[in-house]
Amino acid sequence: MGQYTASQRKNVRILLVGDAGVGKTSLILSLVSEEYPEEVPPRAEEITIPANVTPEQVPTNIVDFSSAEQSDDALAVEINKAHVVCIVYAVDDDDSLDRITSHWLPLVRSSCTTQNTNNSSSDSSEVLRKPIVLVGNKIDLIEYSTIDSVLAIMEDYPEIESCVECSAKTLHNISEMFYYAQKAVLHPTSPLYIMEEQDLTPACKKSLVRIFKICDIDSDNLLNDYELNLFQRRCFNTPLQPQILDEVKSVIQKNVPDGIYNDAVTLKGFLFLHCLFIQRGRNETTWAVLRRFGYNDQLEMCQEYLRPPLKIPPGSSTELSHRGQQFLIAVFERYDRDGDGALSPEEHKMLFSTCPAAPWSYSTDIRKSCPTNDAGWVTLHGWLCRWTLMTLVDVVRTLEYLAYLGFNVHENDSQLVAIHVTRERRIDLAKRQSSRSVYKCHVIGPKGSGKTGLCRGFLIEDMSKLLGKEFKTNVVHCINSVQVYGQEKHLILRDIDVRQALDPLQPQEVNCDVACLVYDASNPRSFEYIARIYIKYYAESKIPVMIVGTKCDLDERRQDYLMQPNEFCEKYKLLPPHLFSLKSNKKELYTKLATMAAFPRFQAAWILFYKHRYLRQFGLMTEDPKLWIKAGLGVAAATVLGFIVLKAISGTHLR
Asked: Cys-Cys with 79: which of 111, 290, 577, 633 at CB 3.0–4.6 Å?
C-alpha cells in the first residue's frame, strides 16, 4: 500500500543547547530516570529511546551539548546532524532568555546555512531551517510565566515550532517537552502554516486543493457525507460518526458562512478545517492526510509513492490490468460532464487538474495517436487506447499519473496492481502464440512511401479523408484495437523516422512484435530500401514481417531492384506483398499485422484467418485438405489456450 506516514522516518534526533547552568543535562536525566538527579555531570551521554515507548512509535536520540567540553565546530556539526534543536533557558534568568535571540537562534540559523552553501537556490537557508522548540526550565522557582515573552520571539522566527515551560526537579512537563520536539520533526508547522498571516502556506493550499478534487467523486465542487466518510476511512481507517460530522459542519458554518453549501463542505470550508487543526496544535491530522496522499515533508509528491519499484523481466512488456482499466473508465465517466462519451478539451483539462500537467498534448498528440469522435475529442475507447500506449512505452509515467489521479486512494492499494507484466517473449516464440493483448508494430519505409498515412489511417473510419493531406505533426505512435480470433487486441503502430537511406537502425527501432516494411508501389526506387532493411535486420530474426506496397490505386511500377517484390518475398519465404491504399478504405492490413504478432512463427494461424477471401494474397492456396485440418487444429488449440490464460489473468485481478 503506497501510504506515507510519520512512522516511515527511521529516527528523530533531538539536540539540547543553551547557556551553562540552565538545566539541559538535568532535563535529559530526569526524563530517563523519572526522578531529579542529585549529581549532574557536565554533559549527558547520547540517549536512545526505543520506538515502542514514544508516542509516535519512532526511535528517538537525545543529544546534550556542553560548551565546557565541546568546541563551536563540534556544536555546528551536532546542529546539522539534529532533526530538531531545543533551546533551553532558565525562566528565572532573564539573560538566558535574552540570549535566545542574541546568540542561539542566529547560531542555529548560520550553522544550517553554512552546510547548504552549495545549494543554488537563493532562499535555500529559509527552506532548510532547522525546527526549534523553546524550553523554559526551572518553572518550580517562579510563580509567573514567560510564555508571553517567548511568543513575541516566535513571531520573528518562523522555524520555532512550539514553546513549553517545565521543571527538571518536579518532572513537570518533561515528557511533553520531548513530545513537542518529536512532533516538530514528524509534524512540522512551518511547511503548513504562516504564523504572521494566520493562514496556510501556498504549498499546503495547493496540496489540499488537489486532495479535495480527488475526493470530490461526483465533481460538483462539494464534499457530501458519503465523500467525507470515504475520505475519513482512507486517511484514518475509521468512519466519521454522524454526530461528529454534524459538529464539524457546524464549526465550519459558524466561522466560514460559505464553507457549507447544501449540507456539503466546500473547498473553502475544507481549507478552513485544516487551518483550524493547525491553529489548535493538531498538525498531525493535516500531516496524516497529506502523507496518505503521497506528500513528503517538503509537500512534494514522494518518489516512492509516484514510482513504486516494478520488476520487468527482459523480453516482457507492460499492460493495463483489469483494475487499471476500470479505474480509468471511472475517471473518464466522472469528467465527461455532458455524458456524450467523449472528453472535450475543457473536460480533459479539468481531469488532469490534479496533476502537474497533462501527460500528453490534447491538440498535437492525443488527437493524432488514438481514436476520436468527429469533433476530434477523445472517446472512451480512445482514452483507454492512449493509456494502453503509455503503459507499454513508458510504464513509469503511467504509474506516476495513476498516483496523481488518486488511484492509491480510491483503490486503497498501490498503483502496481493497475499494471500487468506479460510473460517473456521467448516463451511466446517457443509456444508460437503470444499471451499479450498489446502488440507493437514498427512501420519502416523510405520518405514519401506513405507509412505515416498508413499509421494515421488506423485511427479513422474513412481513410480516404487522409488523401493528399500533409502530416505536419510528428506523432510517433498510433494505437487502436482489432479483433483477432474473437479477442480484442491493441495494435500500436510506430512510425520509424528515416532520415537518410544509409542511416543504421537502432536496436529499439528494430525490435518489435511484428514489422511492417512499406514501399511506394508507384515509385520504382522505393522497394530497394526496405529490401536492404529486411536482409540486414530481419532475415535472421524471429520477428514476423509483412511487406506492404502503398498507393496501389496508382499505376504499379516495376521496381529498380534485382528482384521484384513478389520474387523477394518468395525467396525469403515471406507472405506476398500486401497492396494498400487509403482510397480503398480497406483495413484488413491491421488485422493481419495483429494476427502475425499474436501467433509469431505459426503460419497456420495466418493461413486459416485468410482462408477464403484474402488467402490468395498470401500465396498459400492449396488443395490439400490435410493442411486445413492441421491449421484448424493448431489455431483452435492456440485460441483455447488464449482463453484459459485470459481467464486465469482475469481471475487473478478479481481476487
From this structure: 111
